[in-house]
User: Which sequence fits this backbone?
């Protein structure tokens, strides 16, 4: 299975491309914004597509024309304004969903936010609410698409070394989770069709990621 990793130059994306390239059932294609970011991925043996997520759907679809699955790990980041949140976390996500349709790619994995319900929007601090809104509607768009989707809702992300120990279910208590473990959750989701048409929250816990995925 060849996987287009959108947002590959982000922290989760880099972990994921490494994991994919180390797995004999998968191969990665890294979608990045700048050519100067390419060497990291080429050194891993991954294909590279230089595409601006704020560009056209057709450009994203061309990057997806030779893949079997798409993973959306892109994000505007905590230091950008509301405009980038809308352009990346909402419009960018929706364009990749539409690009998947254009390229006839059925498998799609979305990295969302921990809670994207209407209640979460109302309860969010004013500075964080636009991000939750963007994620809420991107998730809604994906649920309505005729794709084999999985939506992953991670807890508070950290840069701690992954421990391969998580709690994973439709609803879990708030907590932290290493980005490296989320990359592993994505990998196992791609390898297990039982995650299709499902979404779940993930925090650090006591189950191995493989066992947690299989329990869905």
Assistant:
């Amino acid at each position: 299975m060849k996987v287009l990793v959108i947002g590959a130059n982000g922290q989760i994306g880099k972990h994921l491309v490494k994991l994919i390239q180390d797995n004999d059932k998968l191969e990665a294609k890294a979608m990045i914004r700048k050519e100067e970011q390419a060497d990291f991925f080429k050194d891993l043996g991954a294909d590279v597509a230089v595409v601006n997520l704020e560009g056209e759907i057709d450009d994203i679809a061309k990057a997806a024309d030779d893949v079997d699955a798409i993973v959306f790990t892109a994000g505007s980041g905590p230091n950008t304004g509301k405009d980038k949140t809308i352009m990346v976390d909402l419009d960018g996500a929706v364009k990749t969903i539409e690009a998947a349709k254009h390229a006839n790619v059925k498998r799609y994995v979305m990295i969302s936010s921990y809670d994207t319900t209407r209640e979460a929007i109302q309860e969010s601090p004013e500075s964080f609410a636009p991000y939750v809104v963007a994620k809420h509607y991107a998730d809604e768009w994906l649920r309505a698409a005729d794709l084999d989707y999985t939506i992953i809702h991670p807890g508070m992300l950290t840069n701690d070394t992954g421990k391969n120990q998580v709690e994973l279910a439709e609803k879990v208590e708030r907590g932290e989770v290493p980005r490296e473990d989320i990359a592993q959750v994505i990998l196992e989701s791609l390898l297990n069709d039982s995650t299709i048409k499902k979404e779940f929250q993930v925090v650090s816990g006591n189950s191995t990621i493989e066992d947690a995925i299989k329990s869905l």
